[in-house]
Amino acid sequence: MIKTILFDVDGVLLSEEHYFDASALTVWELLISDNYLGLAPEKFKTDYNAAEIKSIRENVFGKNDEVLKLMKSRGLNANWDMIYLSFGHQLIHLLSQIKEIENSRINSWLQEPITREVLLEMGRVLHNYSVNMDFNLFVTEFERSKETKQELFIYLNELAEEKLGAKTSIFSGIGALWSVCEHSSQEWYVGDENVQKSTGRPSVQLGKKGFLANETTLAAKEEIAALFSFLKESGVRIGIGTGRPELETIQPFHHLDWLKHFDSNHIVTADDVLRAENELNERVSLSKPNPFTYIMGLKGRETSVETCLNTPLPIENGEEVLVVGDSLADLLAARKMRCQFAAVLTGLSGKDARSDFEKHGADYILDNVLDVRGIIEKK
Q: In what order do the strands lie in the sheet with 321-325?
């Protein structure tokens, strides 16, 4: 009998499309804006229209989002990680075009944290040469790898050695360059009004309106609210375990009038995960597919990080917990807990994801989140 249901948000309750748009715009900005590499500052602006955003996304991630789909299939779930991987790969490609002449500089850059100031320096050097971006290389080069999740960052180091002749560990883990990517991404997604609150830092580039006030639900908001009411009336506890930051979770839920259905103690976001990571002595990723998000969602945010991390796996009575997600990362987290898992086909790959979920043994495969009601009714 299912007693608790933990929902992911992106691809389950809310559309991921604006996140992917913001991700493409971030990679594009880091490459062309004179705040970063400055390869084509005349093409940069902060108010692209829908057609322009679509064109940039197709350029950066492929016409059918092939780059994003490859990263998702390897268990990478956070948009910040996807941006970092995509930009890091393109940076290596750009430097490979000047390696014969600028070998000394490249080796120096790859031994120290890559801050925004270092990117500016790289851009000034790249400006002296004719270099070209090539986003088509990503799928070709990463299909050669076997890495999954954050191990893909380590593969960037291998590519750097292969293409630049530079032995480095600079791309491993969450470092200075990852933070540069994350901050620019937040500017695009939350807009000028919320950047300081979201990141604790001022905007590098003002003029971005953000997508926060323009969220798209994956079913009628009233029907999703009715599902929450039905579950609570059926005696099922509900919670959230999302890779979204708190602002980007609470604010849309407030606008949609969904917050009243949840106990805030069981709404776990990326901010909770980041705080937990900062408590650790070692820099370890606790984001999905690590089950930490869902363990805290189950136990509550008032539970200590130590207690969550020391929870024996699989969890006791795991069959009484249902995780509802749209990605392999969600499934893998649920498997580690030995919870039941319901895959919804409203994520990036849509119905094409069915075969992957079947291959990995999802307990349920649903057309959309509203079908969760049928699972409970059958019980």
A: 267-268, 237-241, 4-7, 321-325, 340-344, 364-366
Instruction: Name the nearest CA neighbour of 16 among 109, 74, 82.
Output: 82
Cα gap 296→207, rounded to integer Å:
36
Report yes or no: 177 and 84 within 8 Å, Cβ to Cβ: yes
The pTM score is 0.85
Q: What digits encode the pLDDT tens for the residues 143-196?
A: 999 998 889 999 999 999 999 999 999 999 889 999 999 999 999 999 999 999
Is the separation of the CB atoms in 256 and 221 below 8 Å?
Answer: yes
How far from chain centre, in Å, is Cα 125? 31
Q: Which domains does the chain have, with CATH numbers?
A: 4-14+216-378 (3.40.50.1000), 17-212 (no CATH)
> Using CA atoms in the order 89, 94, 97, 101, what is the torsion angle rounded to 10 degrees?
-110
Given a cut of 70, whether residue 275 has pLDDT beyond it is yes
Closest to 272 in 3D by CA, of 228, 304, 232: 304
In 10 A of CB 181, how many CB atoms?
A: 25
Intra-chain end-to-end CA distance of the chain, in Å: 7
Cα 51 to its chain centre, rounded Å, is: 23
